[in-house]
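We give the entry.
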Amino acid sequence: MMNLFTNRPQDTSSEANAQQFLMHQFLMGKAFITLAIVTAVNDSGEVVSIKPMVDGFTGGGDRIPSGVISGVPVWRLQRGASAVIMPPVVGDIGLIAICDRDITAVKATKDAALPGSNRTHSYSDAIYLGGVLNAEPSQYVKFSNDGIDIVSPLLVNVNGNVVSINAESRAEINAPQILLNGQVGQGEGSYAGTAHFKNKVTSDVDFQAGDISLVGHRTSGVQTGGGTSGTPVP
């Protein structure tokens, strides 16, 4: 048997245990996948410094703190020029995957290349995958059996957070019913423009153009008989 914590075989007379101990010692010097915490993020959010969270230990069981690994690329859900952009922040906990060979040359050229050195399964060739054991999010996109929620928290600052949808030609919302809860403004952005409704528009209260109410407006030039009234009076 072997003590996995001290890395010492307890029965060296067994050839199987001796081989297992040697293999274990070999694997202990390699990295594959583990948890890490983000300690720094570059301006683009595409490269981070991370610190593995599972520390090493000596043969006697003494703890060996992990060091910081710099220049770690961040995994992103992307195809072509389309991506979900969600840069990590300092303090995030996530998975790091360790590439089999030295990826230094590929990171520098973003093209096929020979390994930068003979190292294998080294923390220096980590990729930050992110996203485990973190706090409950307050801003999120949630998919469930009931539908999709897009949530951005309110009152984070004076104006609150903004959810923006931008398209160069047209944005469409298709549903049998579209419910807008809140004040609606139209034509206030960079595209300005007017509103057009192809079908009937109704209101339970009133419509107002400028200072003129559709329900309560008065008209000028009113006289008895078959004449036509004048314009509405504000």
Summary: Helices lie at 15-28, 104-109. Residues 72 and 157 are 32 Å apart (CA to CA).
